[in-house]
Design goal:
- The complex is a heterodimer of chains A (136) and B (225).
- With 136 residues, chain A is mainly alpha-helical.
- Helix content of chain A is 22%, strand content 4%.
- Chain A has a single domain, classed as Zinc/RING finger domain, C3HC4 (zinc finger) (Herpes Virus-1).
- With 225 residues, chain B is an alpha+beta fold.
- In chain B, helix 5 crosses helix 6.
- Classes of the chains: A mainly alpha (136), B alpha+beta (225).
- Chains A and B meet through helix 1 and helix 3 of A and helix 3 of B.
- Chain B: One of its GO terms (molecular function) is ubiquitin conjugating enzyme activity.
- Chain B: It is an enzyme of class 2 (transferase).
């Protein structure tokens, strides 16, 4: 049999490389789609304010292995409630070293984290009551 | 030759009629203020299509139309996350909790929570309101009891003292998790961190009497209909 190719359509797909050099890709647990914990859109999609996925709306990998669209986590760390903590595990959020996609975001997020207050040792409950009355 | 001429003629007629129809269609759409979207990046399931359309036509404003074909419609868009959450609240509801978005404002939910078993609020159904502020999910939802309730952490205006609604909010939390926390608060009142001081005092000093009063109020104000 003789096959003749008349046309060839190359198809490319991409995804963020969220694994550092020393971390093999993890199996997806629970069968749930990998989504940003803040906006619940796929890692390879965009944050709510962007139109085009990819370099315009990058992903970052936290030290705690929680990943977010950089715009989502920036917006969160910018709030006073955030106290510099990861939304998923409430540990101080920092970018994982050795992950290529994190490199260009290091400075910007580091600046944000300087302003963020570390969780105080003061009585949380008192603080909560204060807020209760300030807010209303 | 004649055949070819015929084919060309009918083809051009088809094109012309197609153009005319599309122009007429878009003019009609513009008059009816129907949103014309060529590519939509928000996927809306059929369950919510009706509600979304109501939302678009009432809130959306069509900015001056330049030509019959180019119509610019701005929509007060609802973030994808809220649409997703609402869909899941309907398709996979939390046992003992209902949350229905308001027809006029999809950020406003009418909520009911059943009193947890073996709590003073057992057999009661409590009405609440939940509002998602513009900054949601960076800011916590606003939740308030509408039904009168005797509880040390809920005051007479229905305001709730709950850490996840204030300082411990996280954008990883959702409407359903917040409502579950509220239900858990009913199961374990905490008079040591009161919002309704008189109730808390009562709770600390005469616990049995306070629980009896909470039961009585549940029967009185939150009867299961």
């Amino acid at each position: 049999m003789l096959l003749e190719f008349t046309k060839v359509y190359p198809v490319f797909s991409w995804s963020w490389d969220i694994c550092g050099d020393d971390n093999p890709p993890k199996e997806n647990e629970g069968g749930e789609e990998d989504v940003c914990g803040i906006c619940r859109v796929s890692y390879n999609g965009t944050c709510p304010s962007c139109k085009f996925p990819g370099d315009d709306c990058p992903l970052v990998v936290g030290d705690c292995n929680h990943n977010f669209h950089v715009h989502c986590i920036q917006q969160w760390l910018d709030t006073s409630t955030a106290k510099g903590l990861c939304p998923m595990c409430r540990q101080p959020f920092s970018l994982k070293r050795g992950v290529a996609i994190n490199e260009c975001q290091m400075d910007r997020l580091a600046k944000l984290l300087i302003h963020a207050q570390p969780p105080g040792l003061s009585d949380d409950q008192d603080l909560m009551m204060e807020q209760e009355f300030v807010v209303r | 030759m004649f055949l070819l001429y015929n084919v060309v003629l009918s083809f051009s007629l088809w094109i012309i009629s197609h153009v005319i129809f599309s122009v007429i269609f878009s003019v009609i759409c513009n008059h009816l203020k129907l949103p014309i979207t060529h590519s939509s990046d928000v996927v809306v399931s059929s369950t919510f299509l009706d509600k979304i359309r109501i939302f678009d036509t009432t809130r959306g404003s069509s900015k001056g139309w330049i030509g019959p074909v180019s119509i610019e419609i701005t929509m007060a868009s609802l973030p994808k996350r809220i649409i997703k959450e609402t869909e899941r609240l309907v398709s996979d509801p939390v046992p003992g909790i209902t949350a229905t978005p308001h027809d006029d404002n999809l950020r406003y939910f009418e909520v009911t929570i059943e009193g947890p078993e073996q709590s003073p609020y057992e057999n009661g159904v409590f009405a609440l309101e939940l509002f998602l502020p513009d900054d949601y999910p960076m800011e916590a939802p606003k939740v308030r009891f509408l039904t009168k309730i005797y509880h040390p952490n809920i005051d007479r205006l229905g305001r709730i003292c709950l850490d996840v609604l204030k300082t411990n909010w996280s954008p990883a939390l959702q409407i359903r998790t917040v409502l579950l926390s509220v239900q858990a608060l009913l199961a374990s009142p905490n008079p040591n961190d009161p919002l309704a001081n008189d109730v808390a005092e009562d709770w600390l000093q005469h616990e049995d009497a306070a629980i009896a009063k909470a039961r009585e109020w549940t029967k009185l104000y939150a009867p299961r209909s």
